[in-house]
Write a structure and sequence with these properties.
Elements (H helix, E strand, L loop, with lengths): L3 E9 L5 E10 L4 E5 L6 H9 L6 E6 L2 E5 L2 E2 L7 E4 L11 H6 L7 H14 L15 H13 L5 E5 L7 H18 L2 E6 L2 H7 L2 E6 L2 E6 L1 H6 L4 H7 L3 E8 L2 E4 L2 E4 L9 E6 L4 E4 L6 E10 L3 E8 L5 E7 L9 E6 L4 E3 L4
Parallel strand pairs: 3-9, 3-10, 7-8, 8-9
Antiparallel strand pairs: 1-2, 1-4, 4-5, 5-6, 10-11, 12-13, 12-15, 13-14, 15-21, 16-20, 17-18, 17-20, 18-19
Bound molecules: adenosine-5'-triphosphate.
């Protein structure tokens, strides 16, 4: 299988400018993984090291069992069997769609090359578009051609570098879903670099969250969201509410009531209990486990964020409620918690 293995990769641009700090990452063959992290965390550097445009200072990169980079080894990009889907401006403007897709095909048999181009254009839903020029396509169609071009030479790995950032938000969701479907059909292993949490969670089979040149956590989207490794990851991948609590086996006792824990607290007796805003229900005061006063209501169409000053809690909490909702600032509400939580050490 075309597994990707990155082990202990270090890359510094100079003294005190370490972009990758011993990064480890394993992606199973056929999976679409996202590399997610804030600006400057090392995403682009990682992509360029894997592609071979940058030489790592230490560590190894292996794809499909071939060492592409390691001690004494640095295969040039063209020998790595890696396809790249860059950001905007990916296509050669003076070449037709078919010639763009054929660009990386090296065989001399013109018939076989033409067949492969047709096959790839069919795969991305653009059969019959081969004679068009890039400017005659929509932004989403251009990205699909870029994907067809990257897939045509049957690479072991596809790298997608923020491929949807140039698309307007209305189109982005649809193109993401199409690209994901094409990658599934092709069976390619793919790495999607993004700083967009929603994009990573909704598109990838697994998400590696990178912080300061290392993978802070790599997990399936649901696990990452529900069982984040630490408060930083929890807050980075979504809205988070932290309350202090004490743990007793698999239950936390908090000012919001007793809440089951999704994972063992591993000896931690006291810490920060993580909840998501959608885990709260505004409820009848008689059945509530906590009470509070509404301080603000923000309407987003599909839901509302209700900000509540909970009795006995110093901080306010954010509650996501299906909107529109009949509560006003100043109103008293009862609160119930649903689902489970995770317990974390208080960051130093
Ligand atoms: P963004 O999301 O903003 O593109 P990124 O996660 O891709 O960020 P990188 O571009 O990999 O981050 O950069 C990682 C770190 O290395 C940053 O601190 C950046 O300033 C630094 N860096 C990147 N390229 C160079 C360079 N050519 N010379 C010096 N420092 C660099």
């Amino acid at each position: 299988m075309n597994d990707l293995q990155v082990s202990g990769v270090v890359k510094a641009y100079g003294p005190g400018a370490t972009a990758l700090d011993g990064l480890d990452l394993t992606i199973q063959g056929g999976q679409l993984a996202a590399v997610l992290g804030p600006s400057g965390c090392g995403k682009t550097t990682l992509l360029r090291v894997i592609a071979g445009f940058l030489r790592a200072d230490a560590g190894t990169v292996t794809v499909a069992g071939r060492t592409l980079a390691g001690p004494g080894v640095h295969l040039p990009p063209e020998r790595r069997r890696i396809g790249i889907v860059p950001q905007e401006g990916a296509l050669f403007p003076h070449l037709s769609v078919a010639r763009n897709v054929a660009f990386g095909l090296t065989g001399t048999d013109r018939g076989a090359r033409a067949n492969r181009v047709d096959e790839m254009l069919d795969l991305v839903g653009l059969g019959g578009y081969g004679d068009r020029m890039p400017h005659e396509l929509s932004g989403g169609q251009q990205q699909r051609v870029a994907l067809a071009r990257a897939l045509a030479p049957e690479p072991h790995l596809i790298l997608l570098d923020e491929p949807f950032s140039a698309l307007d938000s209305g189109l982005r969701g649809a193109v993401r879903a199409e690209v994901r479907a094409v990658l599934r059909d092709s069976g390619a292993t793919a790495l999607l670099v993004t700083h967009d949490q929603q994009e990573a969670l909704s598109t990838a089979d697994s998400v590696a969250v990178v912080r300061d040149g290392r993978v802070a956590q790599c997990a399936a989207p649901e696990d990452l969201y529900q069982r984040p490794a630490d408060p930083w990851v929890a807050s980075f991948v979504g809205d988070a509410v932290f309350v202090t609590g004490t743990a007793d086996d698999r239950t936390a006792t908090t000012p919001l009531g007793r809440i089951p824990l999704a994972t063992s607290p591993k000896g931690l007796r006291k810490g920060l209990v993580l909840l998501r805003p959608e885990q709260f229900r505004l409820t009848d005061p008689d059945t509530a486990t906590a009470h509070g006063t509404v301080t603000d209501v923000r309407f987003f169409g599909h839901d509302c964020m209700v900000i509540v000053a909970v009795d006995g809690l110093e901080q306010q909490i954010d509650i996501r409620a299906p909107g529109p909702i009949q509560v006003q600032p100043g109103g008293r509400v009862g609160i119930q918690v649903t689902g489970d939580a995770t317990l974390h050490e208080v960051p130093a």
